[in-house]
Amino acid sequence: xxxxxKAPDAPDTPVSPSITVNQAPVITFxxxxxxxxxxxxxxxxxxxxxxNYGNYSGNANFEVEDNKSTLLSGTLxxxxxxxxxxTFPLDSGSLRSxxxxxxxxxxPTGTRGMNAVFSHTTETNVxxxxxxxx
Length: 134
Known about the structure:
mainly beta, 3-stranded mixed beta sheet, 5-stranded mixed beta sheet
């Protein structure tokens, strides 16, 4: 007995492809970070204990809370360091160099809260030596 197998039907003509461009979503979120400047300072108005110095050295143990930073033990020696840092403006009451000693405490003013113990936003190198515990 001979069996005949029917050839398959030709495929349908494909639909022409179309491109759909989706619109990017509108994101209304705005970051709530804190702006930082290039001012040298300790106990600054931006919620930062010490910022933008060129050199840090020492052995320091900091206790950090939501709205306070305290140097519990040790010392932190700081100075402007390199030539560029030495030209930056100073935060009110700050010096170009100095030493923070055990007991030094910082409570930010206003509603900013505590943002950082160390912060460096300038385009200069920083030398940091010693042991630090936060």
